[in-house]
# Entry
Amino acid sequence: MKSIKDHLMFILPLMAMLIGIEFILIFNRVTTNYEQKLKDEYAILVVSKKEITTPIARGVSDKIDSIEVMNREDIAKEVTSDMQDTAMVAILKDLPFFYRVHLTSYLSLDELKDVQKQLKSIDGTLNVEIFGENYHSKHTMFRLVKIILNIFVIMLFIVSIFLVIKQMEVWQLAHKSRMLIMEIFGAPIMLRSGILFKIAFIDAIIATILNIVIFIYIKSTWSTSTDIDFIRDNQHLLINVSDFVIMLFTAIVIVSISVFIVAVKSSEVPEG
Amino acid sequence: MASVISAENLTLAYEKGKNIIINGVTFSIEQGEFVFITGPSGSGKSTLLKSMYGQIKPHDGLLSIGGLDMKKIKKAQLLQLRRNIGIIFQDYKLINEWTVEKNVVLPLIITGYSLDVQKVQAEKLLSHVKLSEYANKYPLELSGGEQQRVGVARALSKNPFLILADEPTGNLDEFSSGVVWDLLENACDQLNATVIVVTHKIPSIFNIAYRHFIIENGGVHEVH
# Structure
């Protein structure tokens, strides 16, 4: 019973750290996905007296992916729906060109303003509308949540690492006699701490597997039946194979550092 | 003969020099010598022995073990030195979770000898200390005398150039003490190991030549 408790005291903080890491991974994927979606659905509107082609637009900014001409007749039709055909011809004659400019990636508001300036520098450009506020309002909230999550995970990480080291010290006390004897007979630090490494590695693997099981359950059961659209829409981003590798690697690095700290601290210091 | 242990004005102290135990002693011990160190309780016998395997660093003066300055010795060098010293303790210091066989070959495990070599050496040593049938038992299943024989076998397992024994018979009955003294005599006589034994009482029957140091009031005096 005590042994199970000892292991749980190590596995639980480790799991907390791994859950934090998984949250960051998922949130990064969701953010990237969201930015991609925003980018795909977004376009800058350019009004110009002269024709603009994609190479011309790219010539002023490498952040421009393509430029799409809006049908002038459709625009003229909307304006002249109650007028005679001659009015439409006259309007078409003076109507400037309208373009939708698509970007290569999701840009910040400042970057958008730069692109706006660059587009305005093209000869014949009358107006450039970036719809900046709309574009950014949701994304700003998203980024705020991301920052808060990162702070939370860092705090969780710090508390958990102290708990892990504390538990390591408990183990070190339990194995102190053996480690001391081995040191007296000249065993290097890695050899005399071997038992700690062994226990810690096993617990790291258990913690990783438990986390994976929890997230697979959330992905396959809960997220498919939830009423929250956002989670249902992003269900495919919840966990993937690379997460398992990242979590296992992180867990092993954390336990290795913790064991090493404890082993160095427990090393006998000769008096003089 | 080369000095295995040499001390010049050696001072040993605890609490960063506040508590001086051994004060400015000079002596040397050669390869293959058997040395008894006696003295009253708390005189510093065990402290002197501990300094010989680097548990305590000299506070002042020089202590050289196997040519290494114990004051300036680096951690890696100290571990290397300890792998070539056999140490025997009054309280045996066996690893209770390990079998007798594994305890005996601890120095070989530390040095990285193969399992085959460990097995052969364990059989030889356990036969030497007459504990062959206990190979797969655990230390706590053995009597004190038997545990100490395991401790002696462990100390001999790598044919060390130096054997340090701290009250090796302190907890043993007369028969077991006799067996341990025989083993230490053999180690000195046949393996040419230098043996330093800290004890309260030198055995009445001892079959080889030995030197006798007495520690008293911080000094070390040789009895001729």
